[in-house]
Amino acid sequence: MTAPREDFAEILRLVRPGARVLDVGCEDGELLELLSREKRIDGQGLEISPTGVSACLAKGLAVVQGDGDRDLDHFPTRAFDYAILSKTLQQMREPRHVLSELLRIADQAIISVPNFAHWRMRLSLMSRGRMPETRALPDPWWATANIHLCTLRDFTDLCRELDLRVDACAALSGGKPARPITPDGLLENWRSETALFLLSRRTEPQAKRVARNLLGEVDLPKPQDPRPKPRRGRR
Length: 235
What we know:
Layout: H1 6-14, E1 20-24, H2 30-39, E2 42-47, H3 50-58, E3 63-65, E4 80-86, H4 95-105, E5 106-114, H5 119-128, H6 152-161, E6 164-172, E7 179-180, H7 188-191, E8 194-201
Parallel strand pairs: 1-2, 1-4, 2-3, 4-5
Antiparallel strand pairs: 5-8, 6-7, 6-8
């Protein structure tokens, strides 16, 4: 059995056994299969590619075909313990909205993003004057699916704007095992090729509760009597 991808190995460490997990952009289900085997999770995948959906179904995984940019809105609030988005946020059309939705439908989100401020990126831009091609971002500019690249500092700024708490953060570089870091550190914005975050909300979202009667029907509020109540006089 081959060793899991270094970011998958760190995700496996973070997810608690038996948790409810949504893997957004699950591709062929490699991560879901790993989590199901090692942590016995209750997992579900969301994948836009028909090929990826077919591969997941062939492995016996629960998956629905959908677009993370649009279809997260249809998931109920706090339906999962973890929502995972591995090296995919930079491909989303609305990354701010996607990140906010992940932490509406799950208690915690696990996000990994390539860091465009890594020293190899900076060196390539400075020396070659071209869009970098590295291990974390291997595709040429005209073939990449990435449309919203960011730096470690950009991402932490967005987390603050959305009032998200960074519960844990690790750097992944050069295929080495994950290294715990403080993401706000200036040095890490140079050293981290990819960063993996465990996030939660500082203020938990509350699901809107609907009152129902014993038959399961929605209880509508009773109309108030428009007539003023008679005032009692003093005795």
